[in-house]
Amino acid sequence: MGTPRNPAAAPTLGHSLKHLAIHLITPLLMCLGMALAYQGAFHQPQPHHLEVAVVGTTPQATGLAQAIQAKAGDALDVRTVDDRAAAEQQLRDRELVGAFVPDAKSPELIVAKGNSETSVVAATAVFTNVTDQQGVPLHVTDLTTPAKGDPTGQGLFFLLVALSIGSYASVAVIGAAGAGLSIAVRALVGVVVSLAVSVIGIVTAGPVFQVVDHDHAAIWALGWLYSAGIVLIGIGLHSFLKKWTTLALMVLFVMLNFTSSGGVYQPELQNGFFAGLHGFWTGAGFLEGARSILYFDGGAGLGGHLVTLLVWLLLGGAAMVAAAMYEGRGRRPVETPQEAEEEMEEAVAV
After folding, report:
1. Could you read off the pLDDT of 87-121 as tens digits, one per residue?
2. Which of 133, 108, 109 is nearest to 120 (CA)?
3. What CA–CA distance (Å, rounded) separates 176 from 343?
4. Least enclosed by CB within 10 Å: which of 183, 234, 259, 338?
5. How far apart are CA 48 and CA 94, in angstroms?
6. Structure confidence by residue, pLDDT tens digits, 225-269
7. Residue 233: which H helix or E strand, with range?
8. Is 167 helix (H, G, I), strand (E, B) or coil?
9. Beta strand pairing status for 98-101 and 76-81?
10. How far apart are CA 87 and CA 99, in angstroms?
11. What is each CA distance from 93 to 23, 86, 295, in whole angstroms?
């Protein structure tokens, strides 16, 4: 006779479905969050106070600027600048997106595509309408020189993506596989991992693909600051959130981060929410800082972007201190081996 089956050994259909439903909550929330964030940020780019200028002090130049402003409304902020040199300086300081030099035969638009290719496209469309009415072509002059491996200016954004994923995916592994380590050791491991992530980033973006063709050390340093902030924040949050840490980091460093970084559209082409985040979110700090170094000789607000990255690094330090205090009271949640394995698999899959 065969051994009789034990009904209690096999989970019921209802229990299995409940277990499956609970595990599906995270990917469904990720789907909802990504849909809301990406479509909310990118679905309808329109200029909002796009900064442009007309070069000249003549009544004709002033009248043209006023006419463009009246027609555009809040879409543009149109000013006049005295001469070409002043216009070029404001473009290099990233105060302008485009400066129009009127001319009856050869009108010119001066831009700095290193600031944002999509913003330049919007400004070019505005002044192409002006020159079309004159029946003459518009000549566009770019003050910046794109890197050999990044003719569209999008390469730095993809570097940001790589650094972000490498950083937040590492957090789940450190939190789960390193559960038996003290918070201080996990913090040290996090700093080393962020160093490795930044090195991978600059090697691939530099020698391999030539997205970064000079100032490699400066871009690497920005990448390490950026990655370390994410990793330390994540390790600190893991003590409190456990398996929900990956979802929380996706919200912070993917959904809100990529969309507000300026990698696809600058804030003047986005709605108020994502435009507002751009002013202080960490991805924008890295991306705009890297642009300032590569295309604007280390000027154009680099100091402010460094401050942004340092503030996020300090937030990471604060998260670590909070986690140390929490764990010091014996309140650190303990994951089962199965939960730890599921968390690592989820992070890697994402």
Report:
1. 999 999 999 999 999 988 899 999 999 999 999 99
2. 109
3. 7
4. 338
5. 16
6. 999 999 999 999 999 998 889 899 999 999 999 999 999 999 999
7. helix 216-241
8. helix
9. unpaired
10. 6
11. 49, 11, 11
